[in-house]
Amino acid sequence: MSKAGFKTAGRQPRRFSRHPLAAGWAGCSLVFALAAFVLGMAEEAGLPGRRGTGKPLSRWIGKMLLGILAATAFAGIFNVADAVPSTYIWFAFTSVGLLLLTFTGPVQLLLVVLLSLSITCSVTGVFLQRLLGWICRQAVFSAGLLASGLAAMKPESGGSGRYWLLLEPDRATDTEPGANQAATWTYGGVDSYRKEFTAASSLPTPAVDGSDLLAAWSPARRAFFGFGPTQLPLNGRVWMPEGEGPFPLVLAVHGNHPATEASDRGLAYLGQLLAARGYICASIDQNFLNTLPNDELYTLEQLKREIGLRGRLILEHLGLWQHWNESEEHRLCGTIDLSRIALIGHGRGSAAVIAAALQNYVSRKAAHEAATCFEIASVVSLAGTDADWRQEGTALEEADFSFLALQGSEDMEVSPLWVERQYRRIGSSAEHAGCKALINIQGADHSSFNTVWGRPDGQRRLAAKRLLSPARQQQAAAVFISAFLDATLRGEDSARRVFRDSGKTRQRLPGFRYSCRSEGFTETNN
Fold first, then answer.
1. Strand ranges inside 171-270, DSSP E
2. Which of the residues 61, 337, 401, 518 has an alpha carbon 20 to 30 A from that of 156?
3. What's the mean pLDDT when you consider all of the chain?
4. 339 pLDDT exceeds 60?
């Protein structure tokens, strides 16, 4: 064995040291490796509420080993072409592999992030090494500066990616119950993964088998939650008005967010508001279908095609409420008006409520047993995704429910065109007798409709002056949602005028700027 590298019989191998790196290539490699290492360590240490096994350092060492093995293999392949120095290839592929294990989100977003980081780090390395060579010679000093700068940042996780912020996320402070508090209680599976749903005061519920609608349920997901797709829990938190009823029923569904945080709690402000206005509201738990930030990346087994299951679980929740309402010995018997049901969804939850409504419509259309059908009259989408959900050939054009969509002008998670397409399609057939409205709220973002999510949108620093505070954004949502439900479930003309006369709304929301498109909000003489 020589000092230059390893020898093999019959062929002189390509050695990493045979062609020493030029100044530019050295800079590329060092900056690439430093960025991947520090970003990954910060992500492991800063992930909020993580419940995975192992310490951040041990998990990161495991990732590094995987990245090094993959990089060595790819470097050997590219080395045959002799296009670029092997050392740079080794550094680059190791860094890309580590970053793949660091960031979560859709494949398209991952490709954009990796390509951007690759180009930026490489160009930056060339610039620093050629023009500021002393930085590379003092690598320890440079790494210290980089680590110190990143330590001041806090990683926040969003629905489809991760962004680096310089400030703590704002939290809503005006969602505490007011003077007219409603009764609050929970229901859930006896073996639920969250203690709040297994308390002695919580109503017990059966598990649901959803294995026929799921493409994958990884071992990491099973270990994290403690159950598989055949034992999905029906968990919910309820806000119920005082009195005998019967009261209209509203189910609220959160969107996709790291499963380490309880997203269903973030819709409590809507539950409190609606209960005070005479609606039963339940925020249901579907966190077990949300993203596990890191664990599943080791097996590349994230859930697929779960929107249909999210919709079916909503119908299973409605079945619980129907059973309670019809059971003579149950404390809720006769208190629920099942002829007036509304569904509210945020983010991916909006696709779920539309899926549930269409599944329900198919059951009614096929004249299934009444026990499988519900009177879903209204659907609300908050910063919704356009899943274009089709159930047995039934599309949104045939929808038989009223529809409200709220979209923020500063939403960087979903495209406003998705909501526009959704609005145009829903109920576009001649038989549709409901009403619909599309509201674009100036300054609203994606995440602040949920008080748990904080504000991880990427425009935090770019458009801070244009953003509404989370409290103001939730106030706007409360006004439009309560008016929509009063209009569609109770037929109140004063509420219908909110969507016909902008002046009426501006009295309730002074200082807000928004646009409104609506159809079907005519006078009913109520």
1. 183-189, 203-205, 236-240, 247-253
2. 61
3. 74
4. yes
Query: Is CATH 3.40.50.1820 correct for 183-519?
Result: yes
Cα torsion 190, 191, 196, 197: sign: negative
Lookup: tokens for 21: 């790196």
User: Strand locations in 241-393, DSSP E?
Assistant: 247-253, 280-284, 336-346, 376-382
Tokens of 459: 């425009």
Element holding 98 (H helix, E strand)? helix 86-102
For 180, the token pair is 């007219």
Helix (H, G, I), strand (E, B) or coil at 251: strand
Q: Which residues contact 464 (CB under 8 A, 6 or more apart)?
A: none
Nearest to 307 by CA among 265, 351, 373: 351
Task: Give DSSP secondary structure letters for 384-395.
Answer: -------BTTB-
Asked if 382 and 345 count as a contact pair (C-beta separation under 8 A), the reply is yes
279 Cβ contact list (under 8 Å, min separation 6): 241, 247, 248, 249, 250, 342, 485, 489
Burial bucket for residue 59 (CB in 10 Å: 0-12, 13-18, 19+): buried
Give the residue from 197, 335, 178, 183 showing the smallest Cα distance to 265: 197
Start-end of CATH 3.40.50.1820 domains in the chain = 183-519
Q: Residue 132 and residue 134: Cα distance in Å, rounded? A: 6
Question: 153, 165 in Cβ contact below 8 A?
Answer: yes
55-62: long-range contacts, CB 8 A cutoff, minimum separation 24: 59/294
Q: For residue 72, give Cα distances in angstroms to 63, 82, 92, 397.
A: 14, 15, 10, 53
Q: Diameter of the chain by CA atoms?
A: 95
Nearest to 283 by CA among 343, 236, 332: 236
Instruction: List Cα–Cα distances, 196 to 185, 186, 203, 265, in angstroms.
Output: 10, 7, 11, 11
Per-residue pLDDT tens over the stretch 361-403: 888 777 655 556 899 999 999 998 866 555 545 567 777 899 9
Between the alpha carbon of residue 327 and those of residues 88, 314, 320, 333, 340, the distances in Å are 70, 20, 11, 6, 19
What six digits make up the tokens of 150?
């990143």
What is the model's pLDDT at position 2? 43
**What residues contact 484, with CB distance under 8 A and at least 6 apart?**
378, 380, 402, 404, 437, 495, 499
Express each pLDDT in 450-503 by its tens digit: 999 876 544 455 566 778 889 999 999 999 999 999 999 999 988 888 888 765
Does the predicted TM-score (pTM) go above 0.85?
A: no
Counting residues of the chain whose pLDDT is more than 90, the rounded percentage is 29
